Amino acid sequence: MSTRDRQALLPGATLGVMGGGQLGRMFVHAAQALGYSTAVLDADPHSPAGLVSHHHVQKAYLDAEGLQQLAAVAQAITTEFENVPAEALRTLAQSRPVAPSGDAVAICQDRAAEKAHITASGVPCAPFALIDSEASLARVSDTLLPGILKTARMGYDGKGQVRIQSRAELAEAWAGLGRVPCVLEQRLALHRELSVIVARGVDGQWVHFPVQQNLHREGILAVTEVPAPDVDPALAAQAVAHAGAIAQSMHYVGVLCVEFFVVKAADGRLSLVANEMAPRPHNSGHYTIDACDVSQFELQVRAMAQLPLVAPRLHSPTVMLNLLGDLWWRDGVERTPAWDAVLALPGAHLHLYGKTSARPGRKMGHLTLTGADAASVRAVALQAASLLG
Ligand code: ADP
Ligand code: MG
């Protein structure tokens, strides 16, 4: 299909986004750089994306008037948050192109549906069981212990998860989570964690970023390094193929991130297990703003506007450090981190999201380091971490 055949929305049009968090803010920046106007729907008058957007509809996700206002001003709509009710996206889709679709987002909102989709795409998941009744609790196989009990819906950054050792702990943890539907996953010995971000257009063409290595602390992403050091090229190619297969089988349109665990068998062989997916740009792809020629946010814009998706190229090795609210506190006293010292480091790119209250664990910003080679980037990242710590 030639570019002319597409129903492309060219710069000058207005693009809308459901959700006003940092992902929405970086989407707005990318859209505006290309010459689009933007509209954000988020009830919070101080939302990071609302603060920088041309239009800000300050209504709840399911507010009919708010959805109407967004559709009136925006010619195409995306989402920055997977817990936007799928119903809101379906309503918007009656009058505007919406990417990703409410159906795709609905799959990602429910860990059981997500695992069913991943498995149906031919990609392995961690062994798990759905726990939604006393009977399903009693049926759980001992092979899933020790395990991690995760609420099927609304979990993020390790929230809604309990690590359990025994059946007694499992029953207690499920009661503690309010007996809502959960998945119990076998706790795997993780050799490492990787993620792959793909962008897919309405025409089915898809492109991907390089495989990313992620380090989590207390369930929250702390560090991403790209290229992922010492990854077997065959394993990396398989991760990309898995992410592509998952996107294809959903007829996905937009940016999708798939998180993987690398597990090591007794014979030393490494294999991939898909953990979860996000129907939007992902924290592990923030480095793409500074280290790639096209960012994940620009690809989100291009996919929703039906512009060509070009294969992104990493032009620098990179390390991304998440900046959590904890950095704003020392000995119980709030302070401003030493940004001047951090910005004196070569290849340091600071991104702050405009959030005013720095609660511990809250994602306030990120720092991307780029440089000539991976070893020097890693060394500068360590310096940055010690300046901030
Ligand atoms: P969230 O939606 O909060 O990101 P995840 O399912 O990705 O939830 O879990 C967060 C982190 O917890 C993972 O990145 C990984 O470090 C750890 N984790 C999750 N599931 C497992 C598992 N089955 N075995 C071992 N570690 C896990
Ligand atoms: Mg995760």
UniProtKB/TrEMBL annotation:
Pfam families for this protein: ATP-grasp (PF02222), PurK_C (PF17769), RS_preATP-grasp-like (PF22660)
Catalytic activity: 5-amino-1-(5-phospho-beta-D-ribosyl)imidazole + hydrogencarbonate + ATP = 5-carboxyamino-1-(5-phospho-D-ribosyl)imidazole + ADP + phosphate + 2 H(+)
Biological or metabolic pathway of the protein: Purine metabolism; IMP biosynthesis via de novo pathway; 5-amino-1-(5-phospho-D-ribosyl)imidazole-4-carboxylate from 5-amino-1-(5-phospho-D-ribosyl)imidazole (N5-CAIR route): step 1/2
Annotated residues for binding of ATP: 111, 150, 155-161, 185-188, 193, 216, 275-276
Any GO molecular function: 5-(carboxyamino)imidazole ribonucleotide synthase activity
Superkingdom of origin: Bacteria
Swiss-Prot/TrEMBL keywords: ATP-binding, Ligase, Nucleotide-binding, Purine biosynthesis
UniProt entry tagged with the keyword ATP-binding: yes
Top-rank EC class of the record's enzyme: ligase
Coiled-coil segments on the chain, per record: none
Residues annotated as domain ATP-grasp: 115-305
Family statement: Belongs to the PurK/PurT family.
UniProt subunit comment: Homodimer.
Protein's name according to its UniProt entry: N5-carboxyaminoimidazole ribonucleotide synthase
Name of the coding gene: purK
